[in-house]
Each structure stands twice: as C-alpha cells, then as structure tokens.
Design brief:
62% of the residues lie in helices and 0% in strands. It is an all-alpha fold and 214 residues long. The chain has one domain. The radius of gyration is 22 Å and the shape is elongated. The two termini are 26 Å apart. The relative contact order is 0.16.
Length: 214
C-alpha cells in the first residue's frame, strides 16, 4: 500500500496542533502563577510549587502522548513496508490469506497477520528485501531513540535501562521524561523518517520530487 504525503502532513499537523494548544494553555497558566508569586500572593513556597504542578504536568503528559502517537504510527508504517517481504517469506509460516469460498471459523482464527510479527523481525524483513539499514535513513536514529523512550515510559515509568548505557556514565536511578520542545522535534523527525521509509521501499508515489530535507 502506497503512502500518501498529503495524508502524512494532515496527520502530523493534527499532532502538532494538539501539542501547540497544550503548550499555549499551560504557558498562560504558568505566567499567571508567576505573576501571583511576584505579587506575594502565596503564603508558602509549597503553595507556589503546587500551583505550578498542574500546567507543567500537562506539558509532560502532552509530550508523552505525542511520543506514543508517533511511535504507534511509525510502527504501523513499518509493518506495511514489511508486508510484501512477509508474504514472500518462508521463515514466517502459516496461512496469510483467506479463501472466501471456503470460509470457516478455524480458518479465520488461524490466520496470520503482519501485526503478529515481532518488531525486530519487521525491521529485518524490510532491511533484507530493500538492502537498507533503517537507522541510517533520515530520521531513523531519532525514531529508534524515541522508541526506547516510549518503552521506558510504558514499562518502567521512564526509568532508563542502565544495561544499555554500559559505555557511558551510569547514574542510579536515572529517569527520562519527555520535554515538550523535544516532542515538537520528534514530529519533524517522524516526517523525515516516514518519508525516507517510503522512498526506500517504493511507497512514495505522491511524494513531491523537489522536496528537500529541512
């Protein structure tokens, strides 16, 4: 299935708009709280901190939501790009289609789908068929970094897996929380990576030929 550059921009613009709206609303509230602090309207420092908590937390939650959305979207695009290779694969066995003239409950329940394939196998299917390295595509390294963050947020509440940073300075414990400005950058990186993926896997039929990387 070909990707649509127009649809890609519409989808990413919606994510960007969501983030912009949350940022603007939160920043307005933060400025109001700071003005109250300057006017001496907080009796205790804890009251000031508590007033700042919700708008700051909203920004963090919005950034996290953007990472989740982008990660799910890109993983789906990778599944689509791997689909042809998966159909041709002898390694991934099982029924990959349905005989509509002989449709049974057992046939439906035993049907294999590309969504069942582990992420590592998805990337291998793409890289083998198209002789590419996904990390080397524009935005590729940024995507894999984002995916690690998403997994840390989802499974470990942001706790960094120190085992994967053995060649760096290790601090225990170390948490990673997404910043809202970084989330804007992630949207731009997602645009670059999905576009590069489409070019590399011949799925970019309506991609503008004169588009240059920003």
């Amino acid at each position: 299935m070909n990707g649509s550059y127009v649809v890609l921009q519409i989808r990413l613009d919606a994510v960007r708009n969501f983030l912009q709206q949350v940022k603007a609303e939160a920043e307005t509230e933060i400025q109001t709280v700071l003005a109250r602090f300057e006017a001496g309207q907080f009796d205790e420092l804890d009251d000031f901190d508590n007033a700042l908590h919700n708008p700051i937390a909203r920004q963090e939650i919005a950034a996290r939501a953007v990472y989740y959305e982008l990660n799910a979207f890109i993983e789906h695009e990778l599944q689509i790009s791997a689909h042809l290779s998966w159909l041709e694969s002898d390694t991934h066995r099982g029924p990959k289609g349905l005989d509509l003239n002989n449709l049974t409950v057992n046939a439906v329940e035993s049907l294999k789908m590309i969504q069942d394939v582990p992420f590592s196998d998805i990337t291998k299917l793409i890289e083998t068929k198209y002789a590419i390295t996904l990390r080397e595509l524009e935005g590729g390294e940024a995507f894999f970094k984002m995916r690690r963050m998403v997994n840390a947020l989802k499974h470990r509440d942001g706790l960094v897996d120190f085992r994967k940073q053995a060649d760096q300075f290790i601090r225990f414990p170390q948490y990673r929380q997404p910043e809202i400005e970084e989330a804007f950058g992630a949207i731009k990186n997602a645009d670059a990576f999905v576009s590069a993926l489409w070019r590399a896997t011949n799925r970019w039929r309506d991609f503008p030929a004169n588009k240059q990387p920003e």
